[in-house]
Design brief:
- The protein has 8 helices and 10 strands.
- The protein starts with a helix and ends in a 10-residue tail after the last strand.
- It has 2 domains: 125 residues, N-terminal domain of MutM-like DNA repair proteins (Alpha-Beta Barrel); 124 residues, Orthogonal Bundle (Helicase, Ruva Protein, domain 3).
- It is elongated.
- By secondary structure, the chain is α+β, with helices and mostly antiparallel strands.
- Strand 3 and strand 4 form a beta hairpin.
- It binds a DNA duplex (14 and 14 nucleotides) through loops.
Length: 273
Amino acid sequence: MPELPEVETYRRYFEETCLHQPVQDVFVEDTKLLTTDYDLLVSRLRGRQFVATERVGKNLFVQTDGGFYVHFHFGMTGDLAYYQFEEERPRFARIVFYFQSGYKLAFICPRKFERIGIVDNVTEYLKRKRIAEDALAISTATLAATLGKKKALIKPVLLDQSVIAGIGNWIVDEVLFQARIHPERLASSLSGAEVRTLHEAIQLVLKTAITCEANYALFPENFIIHAREWATSPYADVKQHLLCPVCHQKLQITRVGGRTTYFCPTDQPLVAD
DNA sequence: GCGCTTGTTAAAGT
DNA sequence: AACTTTAACAAGCG
């Protein structure tokens, strides 16, 4: 779930709550969640304040007054919660930052796929992890140049963080639907016009999602994402009636690149590559 | 209680 | 050799 819009929402939340107050201590339930040695993390953070935030793709970097950063990756289910009293502590708060003010920031990690660690140089980190330009910053020309070299299917290519950073499995289906491009098109087969349409769809979907603070229920009616909400509803038979919000034909639910994929075979035809 | 889900990456395949 | 594909990872939830 934490794709670019969620992480951007978390970034803003962090900025509104956690800046300019000294850290007193850090609780870590399981050191598997850390990419930095626990003792080092605590000794470097104690007494420090967070001063700024940066996001690239699904990665959040929080700058400290010591010049270094704390890197957050939210995995598949990560979340943040700022609170004052212990009884407000959310479930799965497996990492907690204790501020001297008495307030706390919980890094909620239900499935332990989340990660936190100290990063001294963000640029170096992004290069080492091969994280490409942020999906909101990448130019059409750069996207076109990269896609032109890719022999794989367009959906897995867009999910590849070394191609474009921030797109996850729900957003990619929405982007391809809005661009009317079949998820199994060969990336390199897209025409210039199609790449431009795709680029516009990426901007549209991400900006819409951020405006809605990643609350999918608030997305416009012509977004395909609502089908997922139906599909995960307790009414199993609803699955048989998932219709395209544009043409009202039956949607197709398959697997592409190993991930569950929703698309409209009518509006997103598989043209010959 | 089994199967599905999410993002990333190591390993396997071409 | 370099690119692409697949499976494993953890664990909650329906």
